[in-house]
Amino acid sequence: MSLVINQRTIGEVTILDLSGKITIGVGNVQLREAIKKLLEAGNKKILLNLADVSYVDSSGIGELVHSFTTTSNAGGTLKLLNLTKKIQDLLAITKLLTVFETFSNEDEAVASFK
Amino acid sequence: MDPTGSTIELSIDSDFQFVELVASVTDSITQLVGFGPEEAYWIGLSVRESVINAIKHGNKLDVKKPVEVKFVISDDQIVIYVKDFGEGFDPSCVPNPLDPVNLLNPNGRGIFYMRTFMDEVDFQTPSSGGTVVVMRKRKTAKTTGL
């Protein structure tokens, strides 16, 4: 299954609900395009909801990093919501939990952008 | 299972669409050996990373060049060989992804993950060319029931 991205907005925060895999040649391009469109539209407060992401490899982790740096370079902020245990492990062992701001509660995540 | 080892081999074209196929075979084999779901998951990820590297960096996406994967299994371990037909590879040249200057690099974590999740990872450069990645994972006391 490829990556499905549903977009919704709460206040100034755009939430992307990701469902499926983020792996090489599958979800990474879709995620990159989605972030690019948001930034071009001026949506610079982005929250990626990873609750339904079934699989991520190093390319997927790299795409999360790319999303983060692209958003930051555009003057925006990108945060992560509902990390699965496996994604959390992959981020932790490569010290990326020190880079990303992560949340397990959507209300708290949205409020943190203010 | 034959304690001296059984061998399963497959060969794929250098196309990312076949990574899933190798991953599915890996899942079946780790189940056969009796790894627990957590270990099996990370073995699968390591094989996937190795095959992706072989396609992308080894064979440089040349679909005419195969990636050969061999699993040697026994009651207590799995050894996986992933061979590409590229120009060779020096693992010492891979930047450390934990170095602060590399943290925001979107690439360069695959080998680190392989080394983290497998007991041994070795890179061999046979005289016939290419690179062979050899990964070993032993069953833990928990999964062997000791």
Report on the structure:
The complex is a heterodimer of chains A (114) and B (146). Chain A is of the alpha/beta class. Chain A is 39% helix and 32% strand. Chain A contains 4 helices and 5 strands. Chain A has a 5-stranded mixed beta sheet. In chain A, helix 1 runs parallel beside helix 2 (58-73). The radius of gyration of chain A is 13 Å and the shape is globular. The N and C termini of chain A lie far apart (35 Å). The mean pLDDT of chain A is 95. Chain B is an alpha+beta fold and 146 residues long. Chain B has a single domain (6-144), classed as Histidine kinase-like ATPase, C-terminal domain (Heat Shock Protein 90), CATH 3.30.565.10. Chain B is 34% helix and 24% strand. Chain B is built from 4 helices and 5 strands; from the N terminus they run E-H-H-E-E-H-E-E-H. In chain B, strand 4 (120-124) and strand 5 form a beta hairpin. The longest helix of chain B has 22 residues, at 37-58. Chain B is globular, with a radius of gyration of 15 Å. The chains are: A alpha/beta (114), B alpha+beta (146). Chain A binds chain B through residues 23-25, 57-59, 61-63, 65-66, 68-69, 86, 90, 93-96, 98-99, and chain B through 16-17, 19, 41, 45, 48-49, 52, 56, 97-98, 103-107, 109-110, 112-113, 116.
Summarize, please.
The complex is a heterodimer of chains A (114) and B (146). Chain A is of the alpha/beta class and 114 residues long. Chain A has one domain (4-86, 95-111): 2-Layer Sandwich (Transcription Regulator spoIIAA), CATH 3.30.750.24.
